[in-house]
Amino acid sequence: MRKNMYRPAALILAALAVLPLAGCATKSKSKADASYVARDVDTLYNLAKDRLDRRQYKLAAALFDEVERQHPYSPWARRAQLMSAFSYYLARDYAESIGSAQRFLAIHPGNRDAPYAYYLIAISYYERIEDVTRDQKITQQALDSLEELVRRYPDTRYAADARVKLDLVRDHLAGKEMEIGRFYQRRGEWLASVIRFRKVVDDYGTTTHSPEALLRLTESYLALGVRDEAKRAAATLGHNYPGSKWYARAFELMNKHPA
């Protein structure tokens, strides 16, 4: 899945949250780190922001965490939580990014930045999606998170990007089902293959895999001797994808198995 081609769009949206602390001109020292040193909130936040600007993302995240820890009742503690999640995301530490964003939502569920936190969670799962040959637990979590974002905040710019990714995630999950279904076909386990191809048609019918799934259903049903179901699958294929190579193959196959 070529998900990284959409990464710049995600970063552009996320970068909107990178705001300096208003009215503060504090600069960081070159050897500053995240070890515990009591600092005022202005100094600490801008030290974290400076590390983020320098692309020292892990250090930036740790420093934003320090803002929250040292100044938990400051208005900037809330912003630091999100900036920590964002910094972990840029560092490709997606598990930490998800954890930080989830902590923000647990404490501030109705905050105006909640859509952004949901977005960070969703794209952090999205960036961890594995090839279809691997377990797809993370892919399902990405799907669930993207759907939750769209459901909760349908009119936000984050939801618009999520909708694009949802199509790709569904296609990816359908691809996994197709891989398993074809495996069962090769083994002659026709009922098991029907279950997989049926899932593609029923749950991922708008994906690019749907035409092939209908052909494979036709093949599997014929192998099981259930010609009426095979005919139904082929007819659906012909109705929805009349000019496809998959329908041509299904049509030929049905002619070879007359009633």
| Number of DSSP strand runs | 0
- Low-pLDDT stretches are 1-32
Fraction of residues in helix: 55-70%
On the 0 to 100 scale, the average pLDDT is: 86
CATH class of the domain at 187-259: Mainly Alpha
The secondary-structure class comes to mainly alpha
- Considering the protein shown, what is the CATH homologous superfamily of the domain at 187-259? Tetratricopeptide repeat domain
| C-alpha Rg (nearest Å) | 25 Å
The appropriate CATH architecture of the domain at 187-259 is Alpha Horseshoe
Tally of DSSP helical segments? 12
Written description of the protein model:
- There is one protein chain.
- Helix 4 (75-90) packs parallel to helix 6, helix 6 runs antiparallel to helix 7 and helix 9 (190-203) packs antiparallel against helix 10.
- This protein has a domain at 187-259: Serine Threonine Protein Phosphatase 5, Tetratricopeptide repeat (Alpha Horseshoe).
- Helices cover 69% and strands 0% of the residues.
- With 259 residues, the chain is an all-alpha fold.
Give a quick rundown of the structure.
By secondary structure, the chain is mainly alpha-helical. The chain has helices at 7-15, 41-53, 57-70, 75-90, 94-107, 114-126, 137-152, 157-186, 190-203, 210-224, 227-240, 245-256.
